[in-house]
Structures are given as structure tokens and as C-alpha cells.
Amino acid sequence: MLPLLVMGVAVPSIFATVALPAYAYRSTDSETAEFSTALSVGAQNLEVAAAVEPAMVASRDAYGATSAAEMARIAQAARYASYSGPSVRDLLANPPYPGYDPNTIVSIAMQYLGSPYVYGGASPAGFDCSGFTQFVFAHVGISLPHSSSAQGRMTAIAPEAAMAGDLVFTDGGGHVGIYLGNGTMIHASTPATGVKISKPWGNYWFVRVGI
Question: What global pTM score does this model have?
Fold first, then answer.
């Protein structure tokens, strides 16, 4: 009778001891998994909400871009800021080109696209409008006065006869450039833009020199 009593007490105790850790392990494992999932979800929400979008907005609002044309103009202005080449007088005394040719005039003018504007200037270190045309035409041995109004009093041609290489005058003769054809001209414009290409404006007319 005693052995049966001992077995009756001992065996259930053994089962209880074995079962209890197994039950506790399953509970802990389940809670750990839920907790890990919560951490994972919380971390994702924090990264998207707090880090990504504000950085993108700040980048858009704080920075701008410089155009390729503006960068080229700045580089050209810097290149000619300390120009020490031939002057108009030097070019007229020894023209690097044998004579007038419209395509040559356009080619020479385009070399100085982006050069700085300086009032009274007549070299790549700084041009005003009539100084620019004077300098370009000096390359082919043609002397022009350093005055847009004086250049504008030369022989005018009909607009339909205008071709690249002609002079074009705007602002009642107060501004001059070199016609490029297709309704555009190259000219020493303003201190902000230097030598640039644009369309003539207002009432404008054309003068041909060298022929």
C-alpha cells in the first residue's frame, strides 16, 4: 500500500515539474516574438516619418542650380578679365584676316561670347556695344568709330537684304550688335550678361560695311 501511495504522489509531481518549464517557455517565446515585431514596426515608422521626408524638403528649398550657359559666361569673363592681347589700333595696323568676309565676322564675334561688359571698353577685358563691333571689324582691317550712333549713320540696307555679318541697330541707334541671321544678333549687352545672343528689339535697322 505504501509503495502505491508514494508512486501516486511522486509521479504527478514529476509530470508537473516537466510540464511547468515547457509552458513557461512557450509563453516567453510568444511574448518575445510579439515584442520583436513591435520593435520592427516602430523602427520603420520612425525612419520614414522623422528622417527621410524633411531631408528631401530641405534639399529642395535650400539649393538652386546654375545653368550651363551661365557657368560658361562666368568662365569666359574670368578668362578675359586680364586680357593683354592686341588692341583695336594693333589689329588695324596688322589685320589677322586678309579682308572682309561675313562668315569671318560672325566667327570672330562668336569667339567673344560671354566676355564682360564694361562701359567705354573695346577689348575682351570689357566691351561696350560699339567697342565690341569696332574690335571685331578691326580683325579684317575695317575701322569703325567707337560710337553706336556714328556707326548707325553709315549706309543702311533694307531689312529683307540683311545677312549674317551686318550691323544691327536698336534703341534709336543707341545700341549696336552683329547680325547672325534668323532674327538674332550677338552684342555686348549689360554688365550682368556681357556679350550674348538675343533678338533685336523695338524699331531696328541694318548697316553693311566692308563691301
Answer: 0.66
